[in-house]
Amino acid sequence: GKGKWKEFDSRDLLISYNALKVLEARYLLKDPNTLRYIETPQMMFRRVARHIANVEKLYGKDEKQVKEIEDKLYEMMSNLKFIPNTPALMNSGTRLGILSACFVIPVRDAMSTPNGDGIYDALRAMALVHQQGGGTGFDFSELRPKGDIVASTAGVASGPVSFMRIFDVSTDVVKQGGKRRGANMGVMHAWHADVQDFIRAKTGELRDTHLQNFNISVGVYDYFMNAVERGEAVPLINPRKTRIPGKDWDYYMTNARGYMHDESVQEYILKELEEKGGSVYLDESRIITVDEALVIAEKENAIVQWVNARQLFDEIVKGAWDSGDPGLLFIDEINRRHPVWYIGKINATNPCGEEPLLPWESCNLGSISLEKFVVEKDGKMSIDWDGLVEAIKYGVRFLDNVIDANRYPLKQIEEATKKTRKVGLGVMGLARMLIKLGIPYDSVDALYISYQLAKFIYYHALKTSIDLAKEKGSFPAYDPYYYHDIWESARDFGSLLEVSNIKDKPSDYVKKLTEVVDRLDFSLLKEERIKFGLRNSTVVSVAPTGTISIIAGTSSSIEPLFALAFVRNVAVGKFIEIDPLFLEYLRKYELDDPEVVQKIAETGTVAENPFIPRTMKKLFRTAHEVPPEYHVLHQAMWQQWNDSGTSKTINLKSEEPPETVEKVYMLAWKLGIKGVTVYRDRSKSQQVIYFGIKK
Ligand code: ADP
What we know:
Radius of gyration: 25 Å
Distance between the termini: 48 Å
Largest sheet: 10 strands, mixed
Bound molecules: adenosine-5'-diphosphate
Number of strands: 21
Helix content: 40-55%
CATH class of the largest domain: Alpha Beta
CATH architecture of the largest domain: Alpha-Beta Barrel
Structural class: alpha/beta
Shape: globular
Oligomer: single chain
């Protein structure tokens, strides 16, 4: 009908040229015989909204109620206020059934096991997930080290790093529905005997050739970081030789005491450990200390070598400086702030780090475009908090429905996912929101906005999940008592600034702008949670939004603008982009002269440009011009109010020395971030985005 066409016409005008290119290349459905497009962007959003809203029928909603929800979900997407992760857009309502982006697959020290979690079982699981557009993470720390014995064949083990190469090649071969290559996270914990090989697996001569489909991260613990600071030695362990391979050593290294909140919880852990056979590492009344565990490891001959933690750390830093890998995962912090810590220990994350997950868990993501919630009020820019609440409410409902709409490739994944029902509502467009508010990214005001927004979004996401529990029930692994309210351990804004020695205070302007956040009462929410339950064990997550931010026409995730003008290299071709907000400013100052624009496009920045006014230079500082500590601090702000992870790239200038990487990694640990990655400009031959049009 006529109304229908009107919808298509007006909404599709919001889609930028670049967004359309991406949608065309990967997302819009084609007729398999003629290869002609059979949908427009609006039809795609409708397809997704309908598929996801249909789940409501399982919970007894009638046609009319389902349609109302469908319309809400459609509205959010078509206005580009909320976009779900790529697999949900690509696969909803099609033959392919995976709608989630994030998976963690266990790898036990065996070729194959009856439980389906040996090395080659993991390989198969990975291929099935990649085939449909998901990303996978693995912890390889349980594998026996290189050169160790293999009893069944009297042979010699190849070690985890060799096995990783098979996963890498398989990733190359299995293109995702012909649309994109898969992505992986490979983790090894700092105590593993092969950790030095692992650290070097992608650097130096191997930089542009090895493990190209992997991000790699070293799993570090507080004991390790403390040893780095003090220059102490740490043991490298052969996990095969601990009593239950991998398991016991692992329990101790987690520093379980770190995430025990009170005595009754300690009791619970003790009971669990006993039942699972971990009691060898307990004395009468408590979990043993690091020193005590070492005595046991020594008795078992599990210690292969002692190395200086400082040296190991320097190697990690050197590698990251040279090639971007390895990053760090802070395993203690991850487990300390894992809301359902009582059902297992997390050892790995998905490829970009925003989802620390238990073995076999998956998570689906979706992000709100923050810039859409900047409104003009009485001639001043402000934030549309009510609009934000609405987007959060339907965003969380959307993501929760995805868990039921998913067709899982393996039953282990389905079971683990439905047990905890993790979802990750995130954000994009922070940089552009800040510009619209007139606040430079590298300022205390911007950090304050990040902090307050994260708190607000987390509060309302949690509230929505409680409301959904009233309606549909809690996640099966929910335990009202053992569930850990991570907001109780969120650090306050001032103390985060103190860690980094920044003396400025937030202005009255941003305090006023966000005062609604100060009125939120988390303790009331806790009462409600205990009374009514909780639908999802995690509710928020900050994803990189690599593709969906292009679709939404905004800056990615919580990152600063990457460049004011640049060439974007993606699988389907090259795109030239000039930031439209920036163009608007140029016009405002009557600087939109072709010669000036050309000049800016050549470098991507205005830092050195004599024609550009100072305020504008400050506002449009790009990713490499923002001082590294502001990158880390923004990540820390968002992590405080986040029950899963915060993905962020700490972008560095090409000329930054290795010491900068070291400082960034240390600061990240001290700020309680769960994982950190740096990227020094031009440290890889293949870079997704290049500055400047001429390059
Ligand atoms: P998008 O914008 O496409 O929805 P993001 O850039 O936010 O995705 O990435 C979110 C997660 O999606 C990643 O951490 C990873 O788990 C998964 N992912 C991203 N790109 C790929 C890829 N090429 N192959 C497999 N998984 C991917």
